[in-house]
Design brief:
Number of strands: 5
Number of helices: 5
Order of helices and strands: EHEHEHEHEH
Helix content: 25-40%
Largest sheet: 5 strands, parallel
Radius of gyration: 15 Å
Shape: globular
Structural class: alpha/beta
Distance between the termini: 27 Å
Strand content: 5-15%
Strand order of the largest sheet: 1-2-3-4-5
Length: 143
């Protein structure tokens, strides 16, 4: 079984940063044959401070990720924080990631799963492993 990696900058800072990281990841992929998902968020809505940089936003961020996907051939993973972001993000991303603090949000899980993308639900520390069956049920019963 080939290893699978999720790697990339936490948040989209600039196209230069995306291209630098993607170039290195594409090189590693070519050398090793590993599956690598390029991960970057267009909006980090869960920052501690309201003054923290959040990213370029949905429209610009998804265009930047589409350009990286086309240029480097890497599949894309990005976070979504609201159900209204799922469709647009799902048109570019191969995997939609649900942040841990949002892992029980029914509408978000349903919207993500309805895109047909893989949905990566991060486990919140306040949930046991057994309790993760409920977010999984929410996502899979909508398929």
């Amino acid at each position: 079984m080939k290893p699978i990696f999720i790697a990339g900058p936490c948040v989209i800072e600039s196209m230069d940063v995306l291209q630098t990281v993607a170039s290195e990841l594409a090189s590693i992929k070519q050398q090793t044959g590993a599956t690598i998902y390029f991960k970057a968020s267009f909006d980090k809505a869960n920052r501690t401070s309201i003054h923290s940089f959040r990213g370029p936003g949905l429209e610009k961020g998804m265009q930047m990720l589409a350009d990286i996907k086309a240029q480097f051939g890497l599949p894309i993973l990005t976070d979504i924080h609201e159900s209204s972001q799922a469709t647009a993000a799902g048109e570019v991303a191969d995997i939609l990631q649900i942040p841990a603090f949002l892992c029980r949000q029914t509408d978000l899980l349903v919207a993500a799963s309805q895109t047909g993308c893989i949905v990566n639900v991060k486990k919140a520390q306040f949930l046991s492993g057994d309790d993760m069956q409920y977010p999984v049920e929410k996502a899979t019963t909508t398929l």
